[in-house]
UniProtKB/TrEMBL annotation:
It comes from Opacimonas viscosa. One of its GO terms (cellular component) is cell outer membrane. Monomer. It is a lipid-anchor. Gene3D superfamilies: Lipoprotein localisation LolA/LolB/LppX. Residues 1-31 form the signal peptide. It holds the Pfam family LolB. Its main location: membrane. It is found in: Cell outer membrane. This is Outer-membrane lipoprotein LolB. Belongs to the LolB family.
Length: 209
C-alpha cells in the first residue's frame, strides 16, 4: 500500500505539471503584449505577417512574409505564394544569418547582405520600429496625420541614412492604421527607394499577433 500511494502521488504530480505547462503554452507573451501594452515603445515582443511586393523598373516580385520580434532578436521568413522559401533572416546573440535555398550567410551589415542576395533594399535591423511606426525626430524627418481618425500617427518618414547605408533617397509612407488591443498599428506601409536601383516595397499587413 505505501508503494501504491507513492506511485499515485507521483502520477498526480506529473499530471499537475503537464496541466501547468499546457496552460502556460496557451497564454503566450506575444498575445499578452498586444492586448495589455498601451505604449507602442514598450511593445518589444510581437509577430506580424502579410504580403509584400518589391517593384523595380524591370520586374515585380511578390511574397508572403512572417516577422517575429523577441526583444532584440528577430526572425523574418519570406516565402513565395507557392510556399517556396525565398530567404530567412535571423538575428540572435550569435549575430545575423540569412539563409536561402542554397546556403547560409553572415554579415555585420544585414541590409547590404540582403541586397547582394536578393536585390532588395530592406534594412532588417530597422524593421522593428518601422513596422510599428515607432519613430522619433532623431531618426529622420517625420510628418503626422492631423485631420483623420489616425490623428497624431506617422504619415511619412524620411530616415537619416548614414547609420544603415541608405541609397540616395528613402521615403516611407503609412497609409492605413487599425486598432489592435490598446494600440493603433500600421497595416499598409510603402518604402520608396531612389538609388542606383529604384524600387518600391509595398507591405500589406494581414495581422498582428
Amino acid at each position: 500500500m505505501p508503494r501504491a500511494f507513492q506511485l499515485y502521488k507521483y502520477l498526480c504530480n506529473v499530471v499537475l505539471l503537464i496541466a501547468l505547462l499546457l496552460q502556460s503554452g496557451c497564454t503566450t507573451v506575444t498575445s499578452k503584449s498586444l492586448t495589455t501594452t498601451a505604449n507602442i515603445s514598450e511593445l518589444t515582443t510581437f509577430q506580424v505577417n502579410g504580403r509584400l511586393a518589391v517593384i523595380q523598373p524591370t520586374k515585380k516580385q511578390s511574397a508572403y512574409f512572417y516577422w517575429q520580434q523577441n526583444n532584440e532578436d528577430y526572425k523574418l521568413t519570406v516565402n513565395t505564394f507557392l510556399g517556396i522559401n525565398v530567404f530567412t533572416a535571423k538575428r540572435d546573440k550569435q549575430g545575423i544569418t540569412i539563409t536561402t535555398s542554397e546556403k547560409s550567410y553572415t554579415n555585420s551589415a544585414p541590409q547590404v547582405l540582403l541586397f547582394e542576395l536578393t536585390g532588395w533594399w530592406l534594412p532588417l535591423d530597422e524593421l522593428n520600429s518601422w513596422f510599428k511606426a515607432d519613430l522619433n525626430p532623431s531618426q529622420g524627418d517625420i510628418t503626422m496625420y492631423e485631420s483623420s481618425y489616425v490623428t497624431g500617427k506617422v504619415k511619412t518618414f524620411t530616415p537619416f541614412c548614414p547609420q544603415f547605408s541608405c541609397p540616395q533617397s528613402v521615403s516611407i509612407t503609412y497609409k492605413d492604421y487599425r486598432n489592435v488591443g490598446q494600440l493603433t498599428l500600421p497595416f499598409s506601409i510603402t518604402v520608396d527607394v531612389d538609388g542606383d536601383i529604384k524600387q518600391s516595397i509595398r507591405i500589406k499587413i494581414k495581422e498582428w499577433l
